[in-house]
Amino acid sequence: MSGSVAPPRSFRKANIGVLLLLSVALPLATATAMPKLISSANWMLGAEAIATAVAAVSINLLLGYAGQLSLGHAGLLGAGAFASGVITSRNGLPFWVGMPTALVVGVLVALVIGLPALRLRGLYLGIVTLVFGIAMEYSVLPGTWLSGGGGSSGFPLPKRVWGSHLLTDTQLDSGIYLAICLVLLVLVCVVDDNVVRTRLGRAMRALKENEAVAAAHGVNVTRYKLLAFVVSGGMAGLSGAMAGHASYSVSSESYTLLLSLQLLTIAVVGGLGHRRAVVVTALAFQLLPDAIGAVQGYQYAIGAALLLITVTRNPNGLGELPTLIREDLARRRAERAGAVDDDDEPALPQFGMPSVAPRAQMYGVLREPSARANLLEVSDVTVRFGGLTAVDHAGLVVPRGKIVGLIGPNGAGKSTLFNAVSGLVRCESGVVTYDGQEIQDLRADQRARLGIARGFQHVGLALDLSVFDNLLLAQHQLASYGDGAALVMMPSVRRHESELRARATSAVASLGLADHADKPLRNLSGGQQRLVEMASLLLTGPELVMLDEPSAGMSPGAAERLADRLRDLRDSLGRTVLIIEHNVPLVFDCCDLVYVLDAGAVVASGTPAQVASDARVVDAYFGAQANLSEPRPAMTGPRSDNSGVTT
Amino acid sequence: MQTIVVGLIAGTIYALLAAGITLVYKATRAVNFAQAEVGTLAIYATWWVSGKHGQPWWVGALAALGLGIAIALLFDRLVMRKLVTSSQITKTVATIGLLGLLTGLEARWFAGSAKIFPPPLTHGGITVAGVPISPTQELAVVVVAVVAFALALFLRRSRFGLAILASADDPVAAQLMGVPRARVSAVTWAIAGALSVIACLLIEPTVGVLSPGFASTLFIYGLTAALLGGLTSLPGAFAGGLVVGVAQAEVQTHLLYPQVPGPENLAMLVIVLVVLLLRPQGLLGARE
Hints:
The complex is a heterodimer. By secondary structure, chain A is an alpha/beta fold. Chain A is built from 26 helices and 14 strands.
């Protein structure tokens, strides 16, 4: 399901091989052995059901992984079917030319309508695709310019093999076509599986949960949303051609809003993210109404009712049932064995990390250090939200190889300044220079790629993803294979992935979280989540590590050890650290340089000793009357009375 | 001139749909894809009462209003209330489920023959600046003006209306201030349902017949108008409705090609894409 732990490669290959073999052998064997039992009309229904399964898989990819809605998939199916119609009917080319054309047309259409919507965050793809689907249904597909004249709009879709040789209605030919459809379904599922297993799927699932977190890990959010829609569109185009050739014709009346809704229903009821369950549900939705006469005509309404029940009662769909049943059985077996173990949570692992040497290797080698003394320079940066000036002409310098602290009262603009550096908000004015390069106009993912790793005040990881997948996601920018190569799982992709997995595995082991590797991060304690976050930041081999209140959510003991860990980052791993921290003793303990922010502006800076004695700092934290250097009588008085010690 | 007037009048009706979409979006952050479908199923009641059984139009209209509000309230009670803490996308998928349910039932019950029922008014048409206005169009303008005024008054002046707006702005804070969340949600959906029915009743005489596909194109006009208005702004929704109405009328009048039926649907797709490219916050929406 999560695909986090890959079965051995040979097993997977054998699996696909067996499926492909069965796809060809079963229909052909049935067609020759039992010609009377199965009519070619039934074969056609079978082929159409398989085409529906392909379309449902495409919705599952888009909505289940990337969390994007399409209400216009019927329009994409229609585009594919009509494209194949133009190729095979008007130009007399074989259907195996028409089908790839349909796929390409689906990809192109998805690209055009997807790009404007997917640049934005929100439900815009749902809106665009709905309008697109209606426009296709009522204006484009019924147009006579497509079919080249005539009254109603449609095409004959011959299954031309070559020249005048056609696949016809005979048992054997229908069997062959069904076999072809099955093979295509298996191939589509393999592509879908490749998405899940590579950085594509991880990026999509991360951005589905939280776009800012995905971007902070170097994921170009727009790119992966668009990629999901484009791959989905290609599958949809193919599916349209498959169904069209099955029934020898297409008509503009087939591609309705109801069809789009039904595909969505199948994916949700089957269980978003559960490919196999979605395929089975698609076949059932398509074949059962024909078998059960009573529901004839009501299938759409019943489907929609199932959708509503799924959303309110069982959001993960039918696909989760096997897991639930398995867990239930396991629990019962355990109860029968008398070993009732309610304490599911093992003891907390120790904070320990292995020695430095393997870590430096695990966390990537620093790039060739440049001679510049200052790694990060922020000058005169202003960030405004409407009328509120969150950061007001602030400037700071982070020297290479130092730990720099950023302190200040709540609402001083510390996190906003972090966002301005890491690229999550736009600076209204000012310059941010990283290693000599101006970066204020770069996107967050581009900055991450330069070597800036940024943690969040609330754990900046995808909580729905497993620990292992989070550590893989963290290496998104290190996965130096092309997204296209990943779709077909080129050998180089396989090699890179196994490297990433090895690094993630050793990181999990070093954190002492091996037992939790496949659990969603959500199920871990706050301290454990912080550990995983720290590891995920370091896995990218960043030079600048930005931490936003790393001690938040840690136990007092752990917070004490944090100073050592930060020094360790600087001294053994050679990183530069910029932290926001409310724990002032911690900051004064480990920082080389401290900046104090108040009301968006830097009010003081210097070594911890300088800052501690600065009157403005005292003012910002404790108000004008306070004086840190002389103990206040009101505080010392009673204490000296109680303890009997005079000052 | 005639095109613009016709477009503006139709636009006021789209504005009602857009207002319903906007209201629900503000309250739940979900796009209500069933906004036009609720009214469509409901005005089959008008056909049944006024068309089939010969009762006056307004009796059928009231029946439709009741049915539409009932559907919306049931949906809120049975589905949306269970999804309070769910994500935006899950809530939206739920409205898609409602859309599918209503569309599926219409397709099963009413496919085949289009239904016709008498128009609300048959005489009393006037001429404005040389443009003839039909009695139904007059009714539409008056009703929309009254509804818009009443809606604004209710939301801005009444305690409960303010509670709805506050709740849309910050549900947690509103609840802490004593706003009854469940009732706010129910009233919001009831208003959305009523707006849907009124819009469908007013546009039906222009379309002429009632068939299961009735709401599809109508809905994309409303949705485009809501998007144009910025999805979060009620005045924006009304402005968007007028723009969409005029655009639709202009395209229908001037861009007629026999090869392409319904060019106005393509115009909506173009408007949506252009808005998203150039001004995603819409005419009057807040930038996120």
